[in-house]
Every structure is written in C-alpha cells, then in structure tokens.
C-alpha cells in the first residue's frame, strides 16, 4: 500500500473512532434523557482512544522504517541473482 493510502487510512481511523463514540454517547443520551453529557463524553473518549490508536500505529511504522534503514545500511537483505532465482 502506498504512503498516501496509509495516511488516509490513519485519518479515517481517527475520524471514525470519534464519530463512533460520539454516536454511542448520543444513543445513551436519548435513552437516559441527558442530551449533551453523553455526546461530550463520547467525543472526548473517542478522541483519546483514536489518538492512542493512531499513535501506536505511527510508532510501529517508524520502528519498521528504522529497521529497514538499518538493514539497508548494514547490507543485509541484498541477494545475488543466483539466490533469488534469476
């Protein structure tokens, strides 16, 4: 997957989490009759959890990129034509 699609997926993941929890807060509010409280709590909770999820994904991608760079710098991962079947 291209870098642009990874960024798009992270943005949608962030926005989707906020919308999901805000929607759940709205449904709780309708059932309990406390309209702004659940929406606000759901939005805050969704924002925090979405931020944490995106943060974890970005740190994993950064670690993968650093490992690839280190492997390239050390010369690991290179094959000759005989080894890869060409």
Account of the protein in words:
By secondary structure, this protein is an all-alpha fold. The protein is built from two helices and no strands. It is rod-shaped, with a radius of gyration of 21 Å. The protein has helices spanning 3-32, 35-74.
Query: Taking Cα atoms only, what radius of gyration do you get, to the nearest Å?
Result: 21 Å
Counting H and I runs of at least 4 residues, what is the number of helices?
A: 2
Shape: rod-shaped
Q: What order do the helices and strands follow?
A: HH
User: How many strands?
Assistant: 0
Give the helix proportion (percent range): over 70%
Task: Quote the average pLDDT.
Answer: 89
Instruction: Point out poorly predicted stretches.
Output: none
Class by helix and strand content?
Answer: mainly alpha
Specify the biggest β-sheet.
none
What fraction of residues sit in β-strands? under 5%
Separation of termini? 26 Å
Spell out the blueprint of helices and strands.
Layout: H1 3-32, H2 35-74
Helix pairs in contact: 1-2
């Amino acid at each position: 997957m291209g870098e642009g699609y990874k960024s798009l997926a992270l943005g949608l993941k962030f926005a989707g989490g906020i919308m999901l929890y805000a929607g759940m807060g709205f449904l709780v509010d309708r059932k309990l009759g406390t309209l702004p409280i659940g929406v606000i709590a759901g939005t805050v909770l969704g924002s925090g959890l979405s931020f944490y999820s995106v943060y974890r994904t970005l740190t994993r991608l950064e670690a993968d990129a650093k490992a690839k760079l280190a492997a390239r710098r050390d010369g690991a991962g290179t094959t000759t034509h005989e080894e890869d079947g060409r």
